[in-house]
Amino acid sequence: MEAARLGIAPARITEARVPRIDLDPLLHGVSKPARYSGGEWNSIVRPWDDAEIRWALIYPDVYDVGMSNGGLAILYDLLNHTPSTLAERAFAPWPDMEASLREHGAPLFSLENRRPLAEFDALGFSLSYELTYTNVCNMLDLAGIAVVAAERADDAPIIFAGGSGALVPEPLALVIDAFILGEGEDVILEVTEVLRDWKSAGGGPRVELLRQLARVPGGYVPRFYRWAYQPDGTVAEVESLDAAAPLPVVKRFMQGMPPILTKPIVPFLETVHDRAGIEIQRGCTQGCRFCQAGMIYRPLRERTPEEVVAGARELLANTGYDELSLVSLSSTDHSQIDGIVAALRGEFGDGLGISLPSTRVDSFSVDVALACAPRRKRSMTFAPEAGSQRLRNAVSKLVADEDLLAAARNAFENGWSSIKLYFMVGLPTETMADVQGIVDWAAQVKQIGREVVGKRARVRVSTSNHVPKAHAPFQWARQDTAAELEPKHQLLREGCRAARLDFTWNDPAESILEGVLSRGDRRVGEAVVEAWRRGAGFDAWSEYHDPAIWEAAFAAHGVDPDFYCHRERDLWERFPWMHIASGVSEAYLRREWMRTHRELTTIDCRDGCQVCGLEHAAQLCELKLQDRVLTQRARKAGEPLPVVV
Ligand code: SF4
Question: From the CA of 611, how far away is ligand 1's center (Å)?
Answer without folding.
Answer: 6
